[in-house]
Specification:
The complex is a heterotrimer of chains A (303), B (141) and C (144). With 303 residues, chain A is mainly α. Chain A has one domain (2-301). Helices cover 71% and strands 0% of the residues of chain A. In chain B, helix 1 packs antiparallel against helix 5. The radius of gyration of chain B is 14 Å and the shape is globular. Chain C has 144 residues and is an alpha/beta fold. In chain C, the strands form two sheets. Chain C has a five-stranded mixed β-sheet with strand order 1-2-5-4-3. Chain C has a two-stranded parallel sheet with strand order 6-7. In chain C, a hairpin with a 4-residue loop joins strand 4 (62-70) and strand 5 (75-83). Classes of the chains: A mainly alpha (303), B alpha/beta (141), C alpha/beta (144). Chains in contact: A-B, B-C.
Chain lengths: 303, 141, 144
């Protein structure tokens, strides 16, 4: 019973969806304000999802079975991450051994679900989007894992999320150290790519390939994909807060830190043009990995 | 059904199709999404794929080569889908009425919900057309 | 020697009429057998740029006007060719000289029905696929 409550209501499906859609609204409103417009009202994302539920689902003739199944894959894994993170932030001992590895593994799955869905739709433009998404995932996963390893080294080698949090509560947040700060910058870039936001908007929503990976989706599967994106927008900053700024996590401070990270992402999104896929790969395999390796060396030295 | 139509009026995603237009109406459609006439506050977004569309904005006098493709695009949009005839070439073909390469006005090809006249229609005219569309859906029930 | 003098000197006998509406706009009329040699001269020897060609159906004949531009001096030369035979109009194609004429001549053929000899690829360009063959829309006697 308790498990059902955790997974479905708080901090599970209902809570994550509401906060995720509100975070997506904050992003749209701030973007509109930066462009000197009035933005959409606060209920806009909820209405979008409800409207998509009322449209018919068009199934292309060349689509295979995984076309309809892959959106749910992404949503389920994101919700699992939200539940594990939420419970860890409330009770520091509610995690299990090596749950950070489980989190990292689960966070790759939404991207894989996008790739599977786009490839199984049978549209050549979607396959172009899928190939770009594959290259992007290959680029940003390595620096992200290196940054997380830097955090693990700083927490005296423990991989459990709860112990990382309690370590920060004793010795100070990871972000206020040299290695932690560099790892935080690397993690912000990787998060920008994972969320599919603007310099790395490459796989989807382009004027070049007509909505890329999601070109054949309509109705309920499209609503699930949009929900997955919104839930990722809520979950990833929370993970970054837990890893890097985990000292004071009472709800007020948590909200402030969450909004601060959101503002950073939105500002990066609005002030940069979209990169080409080869430029993005060079960026991640060049400067960003270098930064992550430097932060790893500094963490080994104890800084 | 009530909730479905109500949600449709508050978040219309438009897809723009040009069936042989001079591109003036197309520029004015993009103009509506700029900061001065901001359509996003009504929930209207320009989407890249037909399968995400709620409303098709059709411009242009209907060209012989474009009409079969326009019909295919209409079939690919998930219903309920609204059709908006934008500009006077789509409504009545303007001065190209007797041309050898134009087939007929838009309502002889697709069922049209709203007509927005003008050559090109001002953004204010397009916004008022969308308000009429929203009112029409609400009264349709 | 400037360009106008060069043209008059080398092809003077073949130019039927020469009128300068303004200092930068020259209209010359040639016979249809000479247009290939004229455009080869203008393009290869003088280095003028081929702009486009326009065809029209007038009561006397079909007219095709080829426009060449002298970018350095800012002058445009228009060479007019008259085709009196309205039943089987034919003229040499300029595609062997510069490939930019290929699509221009395809459009003139499908709208007016003028046959271009030695054209490599005389197919439809702008008309729809189900447009009937043999109907040329821009002729004066076209019935829809």
């Amino acid at each position: 019973m308790r498990v059902l409550f955790d997974y479905l209501i708080f901090p599970g499906f209902l809570f994550t969806v509401c906060l995720g859609l509100m975070a997506a609204w904050v992003e749209r409103k701030v973007t509109a304000r930066i462009q000197w417009r009035v933005g959409p009202p606060w209920y806009q994302n909820f209405v979008d999802i409800i409207k998509l539920l009322g449209k018919e689902t068009v199934l292309p003739r060349s689509a295979s079975l995984t076309f309809l199944l892959s959106p749910y894959l992404g949503l389920l894994s994101t919700l699992l991450v939200a539940v594990i993170l939420g419970k860890n932030l409330i009770f520091s001992s509610a995690g299990f051994q090596a749950d950070l590895i489980v989190l990292l593994y689960l966070l790759v799955i939404p991207a894989i679900a996008t790739i599977i869905g786009a490839s199984s739709s049978g549209n050549p433009l979607a396959s172009v989007g899928a190939s770009r998404e594959i290259k992007l995932v290959l680029s940003y996963e390595l620096p992200f894992i290196l940054a997380v390893i830097a955090v693990i080294i700083r927490s005296k080698g423990s991989i459990q999320l709860g112990e990382i949090l309690s370590n920060q509560a004793d010795f100070g947040s990871n972000i206020f150290s040299w290695s932690g700060f560099l790892a935080f910058m690397v993690a912000i870039f990787c998060m920008q790519a994972k969320l599919g936001m603007n310099p790395f908007d490459i796989a989807e929503a382009e004027q070049e390939i007509m909505a890329g990976t999601m070109i054949e989706y309509s109705g309920l599967p499209l609503a699930v994909f949009k929900l997955t994106k919104a839930c990722l927008l809520y979950t990833m900053p929370l993970l970054l807060i837990a890893l890097f700024m985990g000292r004071a996590i009472s709800p007020v401070f948590l909200l402030l830190k969450f909004i601060a990270i959101l503002v950073v992402i939105i500002l990066i999104k609005n002030t940069n043009p979209r990169l080409r896929i080869d430029q993005a790969m060079k960026f991640f395999w060049g400067p960003v990995t270098l930064l992550a390796v430097i932060s790893l060396i500094l963490a080994l030295k104890g800084l | 059904m009530d909730l479905r139509l109500k949600a449709l009026t508050k978040s219309i995603w438009v897809f723009h199709v040009s069936a042989g237009s001079c591109n003036n109406c197309d520029i004015e459609i993009l103009d509506c999404l700029t900061p001065r006439f901001d359509l996003e506050r009504f929930g209207i977004q320009l989407v890249g794929s037909v399968r995400h569309a709620d409303a098709l904005l059709v411009t242009g006098a209907m060209n012989r080569k474009a009409v079969p493709r326009l019909k295919k695009i209409y079939e690919q949009a998930p219903k309920p889908c609204l059709v908006v005839a934008c500009g006077i070439c789509a409504i009545s073909q303007n001065m190209f009425r007797d041309s050898y390469s134009m087939l007929g006005p838009l309502d002889s090809i697709l069922p049209v919900d709203v007509y927005i006249p003008g050559c090109p229609p001002k953004p204010e005219a397009m916004i008022s057309g969308i308000v009429k569309l929203v009112n029409k859906i609400k009264n349709k029930k | 020697m400037d360009t106008k003098a060069k043209i008059k000197e080398s092809l003077g006998s073949r130019v039927i009429s020469w009128s300068e509406c303004s200092p930068r706009r020259v209209y010359l009329t040639v016979k249809k057998e000479d247009i290939f040699e004229l455009s080869r001269f203008l393009f290869k020897e003088l280095g003028l740029r081929f702009v486009t060609a326009s065809g029209i159906d007038t009561p006397r004949a079909f007219e095709i006007i080829y426009h060449f531009s002298d970018d350095a001096a800012g002058v445009v030369y228009s060479a007019r060719v008259l085709l009196e035979d309205k039943l089987h109009p034919q003229v040499d194609s300029l595609t062997p000289i510069f490939s930019g004429a290929e699509w221009v001549e395809r459009e003139i053929w499908e709208m007016l029905g003028i046959n271009f000899k030695n054209h490599p690829n005389l197919k439809r360009l702008l008309l729809a696929e189900d447009w009937p063959q043999g109907k040329y829309p821009l002729r004066q006697d076209y019935e829809p």
